[in-house]
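Ops channel
N.P.: pipeline sanity check, posting one input/output pair.
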């Protein structure tokens, strides 16, 4: 099937092929595991502020419904395409299975630059997108969440639009909502906190003390900013940060609270400093203990992988490492400890699951409860990935993906193939 194309989908296909070979999955079962169940494509027309109309293409891909509803984020990006959305949906399936969540993976999004829209236009396109998706989503079918370019406010509009059509409030249709609209405490911070929790576990294994350790974070949105804040809180010096507007680096360490205040006020990092400005293409290859790509996919190429000077690569973003880079990192296994994306950034979907459970039960947990349960789930997944990697002598990514793929495969075999 070649409806899914592009380098990111090829990356998902290649990663899967490595795992399928390692798990010795029969050839005839592979397409059923890899190819998404459904892909929905819609056009979203909206009134612009200047009186004209625009139409934005949008997608939702649901990978499999074998273990429960599908679950996954919604991305707003100008160059979004179906293959990218499908690759992200597939990765969500392995991530949910690795962490033991009763979901298949999904992903969706709109081909729009969210930074180019006014707030009213953003609301219009968000509501229209959800309205177009109503026949295909539901709390027991497919539950959306935020991803790049979307946030709590967008989730609130999704929930409100869906609820208006149902005639009652259905908070469990999306996760990552504001707490006052049925969200859970700790969801906004969950992905970044999870990244830092796992980076801490990696540092323990490498015997790196947090005090005096250094980090670099690419991306300063939800994942990147919370990661930088949590690293700073642990006494780790953040040497470099970047977003799509600016890049800063200072060997003495950046003032993270001031960066957070600047981003909160201005929405972006641009304008924070003139002295610490740095070449964004060189940021990832600076010497540091923890490197966190928390923005785009495929930023760690083979060339960059061979130049990395970090001890821990904590993949906050989805798919930041190309297969070519992976081969380089596998050869550098004794130097660089990789925490693969489906483990490293799983905190987000784990707390999304907690939010869905709380919404369904109308029973809300405290922040310490959310944090404690999150850490326990991540801990279990981390230990499982380490144990398999050590047992079979395979890289962490192979181990993590294999645990996820194997669970989905077993569930499919147990349920059988209808009819
Ligand atoms: P976001 O929209 O909140 O932030 C994205 C950040 O990336 C912004 O700071 C943006 O300026 C920056 N960015 C964009 N292009 C860049 C470039 N060329 N160089 C440097 N920075 C750039 O998105 P997010 O929710 O933080 O998601 C970031 C990554 O984490 C994505 O890969 C996403 O799929 C993944 N992720 C997010 C969550 C979540 O809970 N939000 C969960 C798991 C994984």
């Amino acid at each position: 099937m070649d409806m899914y194309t592009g380098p990111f989908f090829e990356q998902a296909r290649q990663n899967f092929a490595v795992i399928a070979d390692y798990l010795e999955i029969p050839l005839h079962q592979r397409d059923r595991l890899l190819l998404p169940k459904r892909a929905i494509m819609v056009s979203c027309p909206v009134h612009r502020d200047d009186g004209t109309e625009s139409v934005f293409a949008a997608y939702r891909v649901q990978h499999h419904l074998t273990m429960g509803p599908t679950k996954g984020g919604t991305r707003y990006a100008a160059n979004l395409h179906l293959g990218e959305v499908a690759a992200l949906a597939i990765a969500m399936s392995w991530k949910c299975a690795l962490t033991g969540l009763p979901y298949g993976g999904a992903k969706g999004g709109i081909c729009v630059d969210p930074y180019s829209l006014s707030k009213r236009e953003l609301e219009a396109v968000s509501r229209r997108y959800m309205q177009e998706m109503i026949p295909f989503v539901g709390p027991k079918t497919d539950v959306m969440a935020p991803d790049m370019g979307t946030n709590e406010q967008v989730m609130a509009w999704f929930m409100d639009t869906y609820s208006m059509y149902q005639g009652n409030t259905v908070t469990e249709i999306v996760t990552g909502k504001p707490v006052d609209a049925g969200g859970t405490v700790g969801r906004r911070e969950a992905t970044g906190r999870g990244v830092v929790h796992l980076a801490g576990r990696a540092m323990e294994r490498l015997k790196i003390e947090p005090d005096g350790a250094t980090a670099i974070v690419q991306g300063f949105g939800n994942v990147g900013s919370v990661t930088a804040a949590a690293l700073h809180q642990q006494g780790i010096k953040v040497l470099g940060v970047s977003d799509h507007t600016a890049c800063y680096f200072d060997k003495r360490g950046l003032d993270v609270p001031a960066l957070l205040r600047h981003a909160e006020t201005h929405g972006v990092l641009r304008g924070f400093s003139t002295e610490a400005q740095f070449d964004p293409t060189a940021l990832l290859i600076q010497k540091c203990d923890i490197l966190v790509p928390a923005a785009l996919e495929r930023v760690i190429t083979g060339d960059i992988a061979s130049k990395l000077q970090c001890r821990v690569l904590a993949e906050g973003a989805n798919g930041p490492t190309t297969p070519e880079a992976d081969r380089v990192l596998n050869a550098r296994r004794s130097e660089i400890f990789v925490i693969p994306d489906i483990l490293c950034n799983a905190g987000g979907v784990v707390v999304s699951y907690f939010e869905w459970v709380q919404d369904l039960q109308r029973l809300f947990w405290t922040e310490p409860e959310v944090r404690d349960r999150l850490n326990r789930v991540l801990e279990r997944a981390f230990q499982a990935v380490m144990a398999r990697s050590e047992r079979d002598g395979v890289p962490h990514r192979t181990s993590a993906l294999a645990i996820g793929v194997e669970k989905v495969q077993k569930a499919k075999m147990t349920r059988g193939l209808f009819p």
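N.P.: looks fine end to end. The mean pLDDT is 97.
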